[in-house]
């Protein structure tokens, strides 16, 4: 039986979004991986499901799955896309999403062009304890004992940020994702600080590989830059797919602003894919 889906993206980080609030489906990791596959399936960086919110203040419970079938607690770019979807549906500009990392509030600004919105998501507080990331042992998350001394934190998902002069160092990403120091694996960011309010970032994403943008990775890199005394608390983060504005506010919350775009809608029969 075919289901409806939306293909959306934030700065080229792309998503299949399935609204299961009326008919929950509980896709298996295998089926998610098949649907997310760019050759055998529809193809996406993350598969995103909406199910009924458990918290009365939220419009939906939102879950994020990588193309390898693993689930992530946070996904910044997809959170902007879902907020934009809910704004179109409800006519509201202020939305609340329930995620495994907690409640996220979002504000959708008036769309300048059809199908594209600018959204600010409050991504909550960065968690900088070694067990938050998590790390395999007690360490100072400001400088990990790895070549390049990266900083680490969680935005609801694990992020490690290397501060580099040459972004070619991003080729280290695949091996570092699987490093034994990261029991849940990790998203590996490589940030070049070009000014106190501007960085260039590439992220090797856990379970997804290089993406054109990583919202939670931009939040993590901006906070880690402040922690290391390399930047101010408002930062333009330039990624392959474009730019986001990140602000680590006075309440210790990270505000992420960027575009959300609906590419197309369609239907798919999940039964046509491996269970
Ligand atoms: N690969 C990430 C999830 C997607 C994050 C990224 N697409 C974003 O916009 O934050 C993880 O496993 O934690």
Describe what you observe in this structure:
The record marks 159, 205 as: Could be important to modulate the pK values of the two catalytic cysteine residues. The active site is at residues 75, 214. It is found in: Cytoplasm. Substrate binds at residues 13, 46, 66, 76-77, 157, 187, 205-206, 215-216. One of its GO terms (cellular component) is cytosol. The protein is mainly beta. It has two domains: 3-123 and 259-272, Diaminopimelate Epimerase, Chain A, domain 1; 151-252, Diaminopimelate Epimerase, Chain A, domain 1, CATH 3.10.310.10. Helix content is 15%, strand content 40%. The protein has four helices and 16 strands. The chain has helices spanning 29-36, 76-90, 173-177, 215-227, and strands spanning 3-10, 13-19, 46-51, 60-65, 71-72, 94-99, 102-113, 116-122, 151-154, 158-163, 187-195, 198-205, 209-210, 234-239, 242-248, 254-268. Strands 1-2-3-4-6-7-8-16 form an eight-stranded mixed β-barrel. The chain is globular, with a radius of gyration of 18 Å. The two termini are 14 Å apart. Residues 13, 45-46, 64, 66, 72, 74-77, 157, 187, 205-208, 211, 214-217 line the site of 2,6-diaminopimelic acid (API).
Write the layout of secondary structure elements.
Elements: E1 3-10, E2 13-19, H1 29-36, E3 46-51, E4 60-65, E5 71-72, H2 76-90, E6 94-99, E7 102-113, E8 116-122, E9 151-154, E10 158-163, H3 173-177, E11 187-195, E12 198-205, E13 209-210, H4 215-227, E14 234-239, E15 242-248, E16 254-268
CATH domain fold name of the largest domain: Diaminopimelate Epimerase, Chain A, domain 1
Radius of gyration: 18 Å
User: How much helix, percentage-wise, in residues?
Assistant: 10-25%
Low-confidence stretches: none
CATH architecture of the largest domain: Roll
The molecules bound to the chains, other than polymers, are: 2,6-diaminopimelic acid
Q: Structural class per helix/strand content?
A: mainly beta
State the total count of DSSP E strands.
16
Give the DSSP E fraction (strand runs of 2 or more residues). 35-45%
- Compressed to H and E, one letter per element, the order equals EEHEEEHEEEEEHEEEHEEE
Catalytic activity: (2S,6S)-2,6-diaminopimelate = meso-2,6-diaminopimelate
Family: Belongs to the diaminopimelate epimerase family.
GO molecular function: diaminopimelate epimerase activity
Keywords: Amino-acid biosynthesis, Cytoplasm, Isomerase, Lysine biosynthesis
